[in-house]
Write a structure and sequence with these properties.
Layout: E1 7-12, H1 19-30, E2 34-36, H2 37-46, H3 50-61, H4 67-78, E3 86-90, H5 96-109, E4 114-120, H6 123-130, E5 133-135, E6 142-144, H7 171-185, H8 187-194, E7 198-202, H9 207-217
Parallel strand pairs: 1-3, 1-4, 2-3, 4-7
Antiparallel strand pairs: 5-6
This protein binds adenosine-5'-diphosphate.
């Protein structure tokens, strides 16, 4: 139902809330690109681009990368043709300044209004999910030793590449990412609520169960 209209989605949620997993499923379902600033920054870091080099230290410590670096990246990405029918932003915006820059850009481009999903997960469970997480450095797919093990231990189901633990999934960086979320990203919930764009969704439970809550909240099913 309504799957042909332009869908401009944001997935909000703390580190470990399942944004990446759910956005990937949504991108497949709606045939729109998943735009993950975390994945884009990790790629830039691997490629040792100027952006990657500037972002490196912040990311390893679990701090947010400065707004101006990330905003430029997203502005460029959203204007690529594949984002014409819609997009799903995963990990952006993460500050009020980023949210305002996004509003300005979408207005300038004459795009349809945003729909924002807030994936809610209690902090104790976030920490549990982040320790034991493995990801594929090639395609960004995410796994978990306990909650979502890959079919072949240590290898990506999709590309068979070797899985690694993210540097920022180490305990100190995890703590810092949750602090950054509370201080800088959580205020976006209120920002979008006031604009009546917010759909809160319970992020506890099986991947499929959470996905169907999201599709219901967005009236896709
Ligand atoms: P998670 O949501 O699991 O913390 P991401 O993969 O989305 O992880 O992001 C990893 C890191 O990349 C963040 O801790 C931060 O350093 C950087 N980053 C990603 N997106 C943004 C953003 N929109 N603004 C600032 N920094 C960002």
């Amino acid at each position: 139902m309504n799957e042909n209209k332009e869908r401009n989605l944001i997935l909000l949620g703390a580190a470990g809330a399942g944004k990446g997993t759910q956005s990937q499923k949504m991108a497949t379902r709606l045939n729109i690109p998943q735009i993950s600033t975390g994945d884009m920054l990790r790629q830039a870091r691997r490629d040792q681009t100027p952006l990657g080099k500037s972002a490196d230290g912040y990311m390893t410590r679990g701090e947010l990368v400065p707004d101006e670096l990330v905003i430029g990246l997203v502005e460029e990405r959203l204007q690529k043709p594949d984002a014409g029918p819609g997009f799903i932003l995963d990990g952006f915006p993460r500050t009020l300044e980023q949210a305002r820059a996004l509003d300005t850009l979408l207005k300038k481009l004459g795009r349809a209004p945003l729909q924002v999903v807030d994936v809610q997960v209690p902090e104790a469970l976030l920490v549990e999910r982040l320790s034991g997480r493995l990801s594929c450095p090639k395609d960004g797919a995410s796994y978990h030793l306990k909650f979502a093990p890959p079919k072949t231990p240590g290898h990506c189901d999709r590309c068979q590449g070797a899985l690694t633990e993210r540097a920022d999934d180490k305990p100190d960086a995890v703590k810092q990412r949750l602090v950054e979320y509370r201080n800088k990203t959580a205020p976006l919930i209120d920002y979008y609520h006031q604009q009546r764009l917010l759909h809160p969704v319970d992020g506890v439970g099986e991947v499929e169960a959470v996905f169907s809550r999201i599709t219901q909240a967005l009236q896709l099913s």
